[in-house]
Write a structure and sequence with these properties.
This protein has 13 helices and seven strands. The protein is an alpha+beta fold and 302 residues long. The strands form two sheets. Strands 1-2-3-7-4 form a five-stranded antiparallel sheet. Strands 5-6 form a two-stranded antiparallel ribbon. The model has no long low-confidence stretch (mean pLDDT 91). Its EC number is 2.1.1.148. Pathway: Pyrimidine metabolism; dTTP biosynthesis.
């Protein structure tokens, strides 16, 4: 199950005992507090705490007191200006703390974003649960023939069934041996910090992850992208749904300028200008490599 009975009881208690506050709150985020959003087969994302809202971004940009603005439209316009011109500091005034349950191999990819504060479940101190990520059949794919770090065609039929059976059998066999090694019945038992080395990378771990909005947007720009690995992208998508309610003006600007926008090199911009003038531009006369040209054509939708 995504949440243990103890975690669910903690959430129920916290939601049943709200506390008054003098600080600014985001009504959209208040609705998400402590609730777990299921991800994958056993994972989840839930908001533990947050600081700031759209108004806090504008307040920091203006270095003023109170709301620091005359209208919501003024705030939205300022936020779009900040996003458009890559002014990052005002977005750092907002922070979020998440509780995430995720497969270890996803965590190892996630931790490459080194601009957050992280505290992970300790397998030296505690015993990991028998919970493994087993992909849905539609998520099983062959190696891409054009991208060394991507997927190709989906596996089907007997081949997909064979892979799933291997994943399930190996995961459970490794956990059986893990339990056998740490058991102190009739033996001393191996230390947990050593026994964990035999566990597979698809076992679930948990952590608290605290990050400011600027660095969160950087994470989401990469991990919510259609080219990101599916298993981390679904976590990014879940976080996007939260951020959209927390800071709607900032998230709308982020979607427009970062997720929906592109950055062109000087060569690509020159090619575009030449095309607009009616000139025939090819990869050979563009000054770009084949890879750059292919990506440029992708931007143009050709």
């Amino acid at each position: 199950m995504p949440l243990s009975p103890e975690q669910q009881a903690e959430i129920d208690t916290l939601r049943a005992t709200p506390k008054p506050t003098l600080r600014a709150v985001s009504e959209g985020m208040e609705a998400h507090l402590y609730k777990a959003i299921p991800v994958l087969d056993h994972g989840f994302v839930r908001v533990i705490d947050y600081m700031g809202d759209d108004a806090a971004i504008c307040q920091a940009a203006r270095v003023s007191y109170g709301k620091g603005t005359k209208s919501v439209s003024n705030d939205a316009g300022l936020i779009r200006y900040l996003m458009r011109h890559w002014h990052s500091t005002p977005f750092e005034m907002c922070e979020i703390k998440l509780h995430v349950k995720l497969p270890v191999f996803v965590a190892r990819q996630w931790i490459r974003h080194r601009t957050a504060n992280v505290n992970e479940y300790s397998a030296r101190y505690s015993i990991l649960d028998r919970e493994f990520y087993i992909p849905e059949p539609g998520a099983l794919a062959a190696q891409s023939v054009v991208n060394n770090q991507g997927r190709g065609a989906v596996l089907e039929g007997a081949e997909a069934a064979r892979v799933l059976e291997i994943l399930k059998a190996d995961s459970n066999r490794a956990y059986d041996n893990y339990e056998a090694m740490i058991s102190d019945e009739g033996q001393q038992g191996l230390a947990r910090e050593l026994a964990r080395m035999n566990l597979p990378a698809n076992i679930y771990t948990q952590w608290y992850w605290k990050v400011d909005l600027h660095n969160l947007f950087h994470f989401l720009r990469l991990r919510a992208d259609v080219h990101a690995q599916y298993e981390i992208r679904v976590y990014a998508d879940a976080i996007c749904s939260v951020v959209a309610d927390w800071v709607p003006a900032a998230f709308a600007a982020f979607e427009d300028y970062r997720m929906g926008g592109v950055t062109l090199s000087s060569k690509a911009l020159d090619c575009l200008r030449r095309m607009l003038k009616g000139e025939e531009v090819t990869q050979e006369n563009s000054g770009m490599s084949k890879g750059e040209w292919r990506e440029f054509e992708g931007v143009l939708g050709e």
